[in-house]
Amino acid sequence: MRHANHSPPRKGGGGTAGVASFIRRCALIDLVAASFFSALVLFLLLAFTPLGDPLAASGRRYLGRQSASFARQREKVIAAIELGDEVVIESCPAEEVDKMPCEDPRRNSLFDRYMNFYRERHCPAPGEALLCLVPPPKGYRVRIPWPESLHKIWHDNMPYNKIAERKGHQGWMTEEGPYFIFPGGGTMFPDGAEQYIEKLGQYIPIKKGILRTALDMGCGVASFGGFLLKENLLTLSFAPRDSHKSQIQFALERGIPAFVAMLGTRRLPFPAYAFDLIHCSRCLIPFTAYNGSYIVEVDRLLRPGGYLVISGPPVKWPKQESEWDHLQAAALALCYKLLVVDGNTAIWKKPSIASCLKENKLGIGYCRDSNDPSEAWYFKLNACVNKNLAKGEFAVGEIAKWPDRLVKPSPRLSLTERGDSFEADTQLWARRVEYYKKSLGIKLESPSVRNVMDMNANLGGFAAALSHNDVWVMNVVPVLFPLTLDVIYDRGLTGVYHDWCEAFSTYPRTYDLLHVSGISSLVADSSSNLNRCHLVDLMVEMDRILRPKGTAVIRDSVEVIDKVAQIARAIRWTTDLHQVEPESPGDERILVITKNFVS
């Protein structure tokens, strides 16, 4: 091995040697400076122009090369199914083990970096992606049951060590033998979420049933939301698909409600005034940037009388005094009351009255009356505040406490819906869930069932019927249906808007049970007799997000169920056909499927 020659300096050292040494030092400085500016230019190209992004170039080549063959393969499968032929859909290549069609870095690298647009959802059209079944990673096993999974999961189910290596000293997670262990810490609460929650409880009514729905922004592995479940506070945690690769995947493997999302250029897929508590622990969202668009989005989502907690930058943070001043000014403009600044944690309370807005330097004004605050599917962010027009017991402290709010009609229901239809829907799903348990043998009370999704949630009756089980339910309201998600949140449940002709924003193998009533309606075009996409696309997506040995319960007409059963065989699911409950329409059937291990 060569070593530097550390010769002792010469005494008196002048003359030609000294000049040469000086020139060499200057050249070295010039070289360093040139390297720095070259790196800066390269960074700017990578960060702000997709044209300069080699990943973008490789993404274009990959997509262009594959799209035609993918389309032909999909058309061949669909043609065989339409003819009634038996066909088997192949497994995806092993490198697609974490396939997320709408959050694919190869596709997303093609889009603009401004406001992190490229990290939002960008979905392929049907036929642009390979129609295949995502395989589990090598060594995958049935997940550890809840509540043990809150504290540990199988390493091989997602063998990604980056977070453990980078964040282990902050109590996020560590690797121990065949497990990842979750001590319950976070960057701003390395001593544990429970101590942190106890501190927040000095200023927020966490334990009294007053608060029920919460949103944790930039959540890490979601320990904050996981430990709030002990207080009956249902927290939906979100983070983008980022360099940590799998933080939301870890959260869902633990059995904690979580969702992949990016607060960039669009509204988050939730209705207005959905959350009683919004929390950011070092989420690094620039709340007052872009004319205050992000703090305005927080205001849209926060229920009147609700609480906003920001822990970490810029709250009392070194060298971020200006950002902290701007955040305080924005909160003041929205009439939020600053309850406390405890170290680097600030807590505000939103006014319970109609929307309040003061004069401000950010340029935030009131939205036009035509701007529906609950419209949130691919809806561009606005730097304006909607007037709170909701009537009745709506604000935190006025809406019924949990669990009473579960069965009390939402003040956002129309007068007709608030009466008979709400009560009837609640009773209907209570009977159906009981039938599922007793007559269909669906083990909803088993530790093997934790993460549940209702793909066509309507008023949330299915989830309400499961409220006594140790599960949580992602209520999905299709965007072409009546937007009832605000009613679901008023009941103290959680969910998102979605279009089932696109992939859902989650990792593969993240749900134990999928439930869908009227599966054909999710792909249909209500204005014509045509479908917007094919049932094959939807069921392959269901297979992607369902865990091996997971269950799906599908209800529809006899004709549709026959088609679903044929596609299920192509996906290599085990199926079991059942009659519906005695009071349900006689032309309906229920298909119960089990997903098998497919390598």
List the helices and strands and how they pair.
Layout: H1 15-48, H2 54-82, H3 105-108, E1 152-154, H4 162-167, E2 174-176, E3 179-181, H5 193-200, E4 213-217, H6 223-228, E5 234-239, H7 247-254, E6 258-260, E7 275-281, H8 289-301, E8 302-311, H9 321-333, E9 337-342, E10 345-349, E11 365-366, E12 384-385, H10 415-439, E13 451-454, H11 461-465, E14 472-478, H12 485-490, E15 494-498, E16 511-517, H13 535-545, E17 546-557, H14 558-570, E18 574-579, E19 588-594
Parallel strand pairs: 4-5, 4-7, 5-6, 7-8, 11-12, 13-14, 13-16, 14-15, 16-17
Antiparallel strand pairs: 1-3, 2-3, 8-10, 9-10, 17-19, 18-19
Subcellular location: Endomembrane system; Membrane
Family: Belongs to the methyltransferase superfamily.
Keywords: Glycoprotein, Membrane, Methyltransferase, Signal-anchor, Transferase, Transmembrane, Transmembrane helix
